[in-house]
Amino acid sequence: MEKYINNKKLYEFLLSKGIENFFHANTLTTSCSFIQQNKLMSRGIVESLGLPQTSQESDIIDKKYGLWDCIFLDVYDLHKEGFGNYKRQNLYGPILFKLSTKCLIESVPNVRIIKENPVNWEKCNIDTSNAYLKLDEYIENFGDNTFKKMIIFKEENFNLFLDKYLEEVIIDSTSSIKEVNYGKRAYDIILKHMESNNLQCNIKMRECNYDCYCKKNYEEMSSKELQKLFLMKEK
Prior knowledge:
4-stranded mixed β-sheet, 10 strands
């Protein structure tokens, strides 16, 4: 069995489906650490560098399954495309990095494709039922549960530089919740960090239609939950 997916063939297949971008969502704090280092980073690397990042419910699972040093990418903007039968915010954070899939053929080695988020795994062995061991299997099942599948790779042998592959940053828009416009605050902070680190790309606020539950969900969050997602924290 193949241990890793062929990067070039995966790139060509995604291109044939009109997919030219990967997506990674995170909190403002963790996103600013990425920008400071000019690269997307695994949670393990951020921790080892002593940089600020917010905790995630999946942290314990990632460590248990040996994924702490992996970067996770989606092939769709899940907030825009929807999670199954409904649309909502990405639970990992309101800051979305949109990156070129060209990183597959230029920088990223040892790609794996997992069938769903590790928090839902019943077994801890990635080489059994949790990952596609052959690209043909992924291609054959591409249209099934697309929003659950994730591209992952270990960070140790490459750098996914933002100045080379980042095309856009999309920030969830919020109206004034509890008298604070969290989305606008996050936008201003991202813009400031991009400028101070000499990074250039389009930065925009997300505009959602009536059929998305993100606004309602944000309005129902506590101030503490919103601050974790949209505001900076210290180390």
